[in-house]
Amino acid sequence: MSSNEIPPKSRDEIKAARQAKKAAKLKVNNKTTENPQLTKEIENLNENNINSKPKVESTDEVDKSVVINPNAVDISTSREQIKADRAAKKSAKQLKKKGAADGESNVQSSVKKELKEDDSVKQNEDMTVKDVVETLKNIVSVAKEVNEITTKVSALDLGGKKQEETGKSKAELRAERRAKQEAQRAAKQAAEKKVVKPKLEAPTVNVDVPKKEEKVIKSKTLEKSKTKLQLAQRFNWFQHLYTEFDKNPLKKIPINSNLHPAIVKLGVQLSSRVVKGSNARCIALLDALNKMVRDYVLPAKTEFSRGLESHLASSLEFLWTTREPCASQINAVKFFRHHLAQLPNNVDEFDAKKTLQEEIDRYIREQIEMAGEAISIAVRNKISNGDTILTYGCSSLIEQILCEAWEAGLQFRTLVVGSRVSPDAAEMLRRLCARGLPCTYVDFTAVNYVMKTVSKVVLGAGALLANGAVVSAAGTAGVALAARARNRPVLVACHTHKFIDSLYTDAFMHNQIGDPDDLLEKSDDNSPLKDWRSNLNLTPLNLTYDVTPPCLITAVVTELAILPCTSAPVVLRFKLSEYGV
Amino acid sequence: MHKILEFQVVVLAAGKGSRMPDVGGSVSKCLLPVGPYPVLWYPLKLTNNLIFSDVMIVVLDEDKSNILNALEKCPLKIKYELIVIPSEEDWGTANSLKHVSARINTDLLVISGDLITNINLNDVLNLHRKHDACVTTLFFNNGPEEWIELPGPKTKSKPDRDLVCIDKETERLVFLASASDFEENVTIPRLLVKKYDALSIYSRLLDAHVYVMKHWILDYIVDSEKFTSIKGEVVPYIVKKQLTKPNNLVEKKGTSEKNAEINKGIFDYAIETGYERKIREISAYNDHKHGNKGVYFNDTLRCYAHIPSKNTFAIRVNTLSSFYLSNNKVLSKWQDLTGSSLFERFHPNSEVKTKQIDDNCTVGEKTIINEKTSVKNSFMGSNCNIENKVRLTNGILMNNVTIKESCVLQDCVVYTGATVGTNCSMQYCLIGPHHLVPESTKSNHQLHAETTDNMITLG
C-alpha cells in the first residue's frame, strides 16, 4: 500500500477512515467495561478499510483513464446501493461474529455511521462515490464469500481449491484471503470467548493468511486420508525415496516359492539390517547366489544360462524390494551375469555350476579379500608413528586397515567419530578395542574440536561415483569438511568393486530412508519425538547416505593405486575392460 | 520348475490327551470337535494360509482311518500325508520326529496338532531367518487363562508351567526350564546375567509348541538317541548349549578318528557351509551394546522365541478347560482364525426342525434336531438325534449322540455314541463315550462313564 501513489482523493478517504477509527477508539475507551475484543473488531474494520484501498486505487486508475461524470441520479442510486450494501454487510458480519458482544455491533454501527458521513462528504467528488460503492460491493461479496469459503474449506480438498483459485483475478483472490482471515478469526473468537489481546496483525495479514489457509486444508485432507497417515508423514523433498521402508513385503513372503531359501533369508537380513555395510552385503549376495547355483535344477530342454538367468532375475527382483542394491551389489551382479553369459551353449550342468561357483569364490577372494589387503598395505605406508587417525562410522575395510597397521607395530591413536543415530561407530570402537588399539570415541558434534589433534582422516566408502564423489554413511561429508577446514589429509579407502558409473552431486537424488524410529532416544521416555506418528506436523527423516564432493577428498586408496578422486573414470574404464561388458 | 523347499512342515497329532479327564474309552485328542471341525483342522488351516504345499501329519496307528475320514469332510487345499506311529508304544515327540526324519531334507517347521491361533507364522519364520537361528519357538503371552466353570467333577488341576527367559530386545531365548524342576529357588547361569543387561523371565507363557529348526538339529536328534521329547528335552538342551563354547576343533582332530565320532557333540552338526561367518564378522550389525564380543556373542547356536502381541488369539486344546474354552470362543474368532466367514453352520444333510436355535450353534451331518427343542450356544457333531422338548445350552455333542425326550442339558460335554435317557436334567456333566445315562437322572458336576459299573460321583 504505497501511499505515495495514492491520488489525493483516496488520501481524503484515508483521513476519513482515520477519523472513524479515532471516534471508535474514543467510544471504546468510554466503554472500558467492554472487553478488548471490541478494539480488535475495530481494527478489523480498519483493516477492511485499509485493505480495500488497493481496489480503490485500481478503480481510480480506471476512472482516470475513462473520465466519467456521474450525475445526480447516479449518486442517489449509488446511495441506495450503499445503504443496501451496508445492511447486507452488517448482517453478514453479525452472523460471523456470533461470539461478539452486543456492544460491538453498536460500535460497528457507529463507526459505520461516521463512515457514512464521510461518504456523504465525498459525494460531490464524483470518483470517490464510485469508489466507495466499489469497496462496499467488495465487502458484500466478501461477506458472501466468507460463507462460501467456510463451507468450502471444510469440504474441499487441495486440488479443487487450486482449480477454483486459478479462475480468479488477483483482486478477487485478495478479497478471498481477507474473507478467510475474517472467517478464521470469527471462528477463533467464537471458540475462545475470552479476552484476547488485540494483535497488531494488520501489516502481516497478507502474509499470514495463505499459510493458515494451507494448514487448514492440509489438516482436512490428512484427516480424510487417515489410513494413509504414514504416507502423508513423509518428507516432501525425499518423497521419491520412500519405497523401501515398508516392512510389508516381508509379511507376504511366499513360503516354499521358487526363491531359494538363501535368497529369502538374505532378503530378511537385508531389510532388518542384520547384514549391512557394502562389503558384507556384497559377500552375502554372492554367497546366496552361490547357494542358489549349487541347488539349481535345470528344467528340461532349457539352456543353462537362460534358465538360470530368469531364475536370477526373479530372485534379484525380490531382493531389491527388501533393500535397494548398493554399488558393490550392482557390480557383483554385473560380474555374475557376465560370467553366466560367457558359458557356452551346450555346457554341462555340472561344469557350469562349478565354473560359476569358482568365479564367485574368485571374486570374493580377489575383489574383496586380496584387494582389502592391498589397500591395507597402501594405507599402512601412509601412517607414521605417533599419528592420530580419525575415522567415522563403521567400515570393515577401515577396521582391517587399522588392525593390521597396529599389528605391524605402528604406534598410533585412533579417534572414532560416531553419531547418536547410528550404532555403527560404537561397533567400530568395540571391534578396535577388542584388538587392543588405543581408541577415543567422540560424538559427531565434537569433530571440529578434535580435528586439530588429528593428523590423518581415513574414511570408508559405500560407493565411488564417476565424478569422484564418495557416497558413504551420513555424516562423512561433515567430517571431510571439518578436515578440509583444518587442512588435514582425507584418505578414502575404497575397493574398486565399489566404483560405479553413475553421477550425482547431492544426497537428495539417490539415498535411502532409514528407520525413523532410530532417531528416537529409546531410553528416554519423555523424548519429544516419541509420539511422532500422531503428530502430523512432525516428520523425522533418517537418511542413510550422504555424498562427499571430490574437492574435500585428498586421495582415494584403491587396490590399484592411491589415486586422486578425479581418476574414478579411469578405474571404471579399466574395470569395464576386465568384465568385458 | 523344481522347487527348493525352505521348510517342511510336520504336524504332530499323535497326542493321547493325557491332560484330559479320563472318561473311559479312547478319544484321540486331535479329533475333538472345536466348532464344526476337529482340532487338527486348525493347525492345518494355519499352514494352509502360508501356502505350504504339503504337510506331514504324525498320527497314531489306531486313529488313522478316523482322521482320514474326518479330514476328508473339511475344506482344505493342501496335500497332507499321514504318517503312522504305533499306538502301543508310548512314543515321545522326538521319537516321532526321528520316525519321519528320512523324509525331511530341509529345515523343519514342527507344529503341534492341537494349536488354534490366528498368528501369522511368517513372523516366526522371519525371526528365524533374520538371525539364522538354529531353533525358533513361539510363545503366547495372553495372560492367565480365563476361568470358566467346567463340566465334570471338580478337580484341582495344576497346569504345567515353564520358566522362559528372553532377552527382550533381540527376542533371544536364553533359558528354558520346566517350573516343576525347581522347589523354591531358581538358579540362572551367571553367564546370562553377565551377557545381557535386561532379561525378562516369564512363567505364565503359553508354549505353542511351534518349532522352526535347522535340518542339522534333526540329524543330531537322530544320532544322539537320548531324546524322547522335543519340548522337554531337545529345546532346553539346545538353549543350554548356547552358553557353552564349542570345543576346539583342532584338538579334536588330534585324537583318533574313532573317538571323535563317538564324541560328536552338537557343535559338530552346526557347520556352516558358506561365508556366513565372514559376513557376520564384517557386517556392521551387532545385537548387543556392551562388552567386546562380536555379534551374537560369537555364539554358534542361537535360539529365539517369538512372543506375539497380547491380542492374538491362541489356545492349545490339551486340557478340558482349553477344550471347553476354545469351543466357547471359536465362532466369534472365526474370521480371524480362518480368514473367511463360516458359511455352513448347519450341514446341508442335517435336519433342523426347531426354530429355537441361535446363531452360535453348529450342526453336523445327518443330525436330526426335532421340533419343540431349544438349542443355544451348542455344537453338535454328525448323526446326532435330539428328540422333542429338549433344552440344550452351552453343550458340546460329539458324533452319534442321542438325547431322548424332555432332557435339560446345561454346560455338558457328551462324548461319541452316548445316549441320554428321557427326562434327564444335567448340569456341568461329562458323559463318556457310548455311555447310557438312565432315565430321569439329575446330576451336577459329575462324570458319567463306563469306567466303573455305575456312575461315579467325585464332586
Automatic annotation (TrEMBL), chain A:
Q: Which UniProt keywords apply?
A: Cytoplasm, Initiation factor, Protein biosynthesis
Keyword hit for Protein biosynthesis: yes
Segments of skewed composition (Basic and acidic residues): 54-64, 111-123
Name the residues that span the membrane.
Answer: none
Q: What coarse category fits the chief subcellular location reported for this protein? A: cytoplasm
Segments of skewed composition (Basic residues): 89-98
Query: What would be an example GO MF term here?
Result: translation initiation factor activity
**Positions of the UniProt region annotated as Disordered:** 1-64, 78-123, 161-195
What Gene Ontology terms describe where this protein resides (cellular component)? cytosol
Query: Polar residues compositional bias: what residue ranges?
Result: 29-38
Can you say where in the cell this protein is located? Answer: Cytoplasm, Cytosol
- What's this protein's family per the entry? Belongs to the eIF-2B alpha/beta/delta subunits family.
Q: How does it assemble?
A: Component of the translation initiation factor 2B (eIF2B) complex which is a heterodecamer of two sets of five different subunits: alpha, beta, gamma, delta and epsilon. Subunits alpha, beta and delta comprise a regulatory subcomplex and subunits epsilon and gamma comprise a catalytic subcomplex. Within the complex, the hexameric regulatory complex resides at the center, with the two heterodimeric catalytic subcomplexes bound on opposite sides.
Q: What is this protein called?
A: Translation initiation factor eIF2B subunit delta
TrEMBL record, chain B:
Q: Which UniProt keywords apply?
A: Cytoplasm, Initiation factor, Protein biosynthesis
A single GO BP: cytoplasmic translational initiation
Q: Return any one Pfam family short name.
A: LbH_EIF2B
- Residue intervals of the Nucleotidyl transferase domain: 9-140
The protein's matches in InterPro entries, at most eight in alphabetical order, are given as: eIF2B_gamma, LbH_EIF2B3/5, NTP_transferase_dom, Nucleotide-diphossugar_trans
* Gene3D superfamilies the record matches: Hexapeptide repeat proteins, Spore Coat Polysaccharide Biosynthesis Protein SpsA, Chain A
Q: Which GO terms describe its cellular component?
A: cytosol; eukaryotic translation initiation factor 2B complex
Residues forming the EIF2B subunit epsilon/gamma LbH domain are 354-437
* Principal subcellular localisation of the protein: cytoplasm
Q: Which GO terms describe its molecular function?
A: guanyl-nucleotide exchange factor activity; translation initiation factor activity
Q: What does this protein do?
A: Acts as a component of the translation initiation factor 2B (eIF2B) complex, which catalyzes the exchange of GDP for GTP on the eukaryotic initiation factor 2 (eIF2) complex gamma subunit. Its guanine nucleotide exchange factor activity is repressed when bound to eIF2 complex phosphorylated on the alpha subunit, thereby limiting the amount of methionyl-initiator methionine tRNA available to the ribosome and consequently global translation is repressed.
Q: Which family does it belong to?
A: Belongs to the eIF-2B gamma/epsilon subunits family.
PANTHER family (UniProt xref) = TRANSLATION INITIATION FACTOR EIF-2B SUBUNIT GAMMA (PTHR45989:SF1)
Subunit record text: Component of the translation initiation factor 2B (eIF2B) complex which is a heterodecamer of two sets of five different subunits: alpha, beta, gamma, delta and epsilon. Subunits alpha, beta and delta comprise a regulatory subcomplex and subunits epsilon and gamma comprise a catalytic subcomplex. Within the complex, the hexameric regulatory complex resides at the center, with the two heterodimeric catalytic subcomplexes bound on opposite sides.
**Know the name of this protein?**
Translation initiation factor eIF2B subunit gamma
* Native source organism of the sequence: Bombyx mori
List the lineage, top down: Eukaryota, Metazoa, Ecdysozoa, Arthropoda, Hexapoda
